[in-house]
Write a structure and sequence with these properties.
The chain is an alpha/beta fold. The protein has 3 helices and 4 strands. The radius of gyration is 15 Å and the shape is globular. It starts with 8 loop residues before the first strand and ends in a 17-residue tail after the last strand.
Length: 135
């Protein structure tokens, strides 16, 4: 409703893959041209809440044909974007949200125009005792 049904891209962190599967199913029913973009950590990166699934361990609910593209995000990128969400936007989010936003910003830099939607899927208060917000 808020986008007047003009979404061109939906970007989601891929943890259990439940969110991206459910949203993809609904959005593709509304408009098959909407691009569904998942994000996962780069090799060796740890982003709590997002996983890089090996094929033999993919969640049973995951249907690869429902995702048009997967963007790899490094731990450093997720941390940087999470910090920017807090300092520039006042959004105290966690690292998986930073990962999703990093991918959404990458998509935005690649297209001329569009409506990109992502979800801030975790809270930053869980990271207050870590070094995530130290700077």
């Amino acid at each position: 409703r808020d986008t007047d049904q003009k979404i061109t891209h939906f970007v989601s962190a891929m943890g259990t893959t439940g969110t991206i599967m459910g949203v993809s199913r609904y959005l593709k029913e509304q408009n098959r041209d909407i691009q569904i973009v998942g994000t996962q950590p780069t090799e060796g990166s740890r982003i709590p809440g997002i996983r890089r699934w090996s094929p033999e361990f993919l969640p049973k609910i995951f249907e690869p044909d429902r995702v048009d593209r997967v963007i790899d995000v490094s731990q450093d990128e997720a941390v940087s974007t999470t910090r920017k969400l807090a300092s520039h936007e006042g959004i105290l989010a966690g690292m998986s949200s930073g990962g999703a936003m990093t991918a959404a910003l990458q998509v935005a830099s690649e297209i001329e125009s569009g409506v990109i939607v992502t979800i801030v899927c975790d809270r930053g208060d869980r990271y207050l005792s870590s070094d995530l917000f130290e700077e």
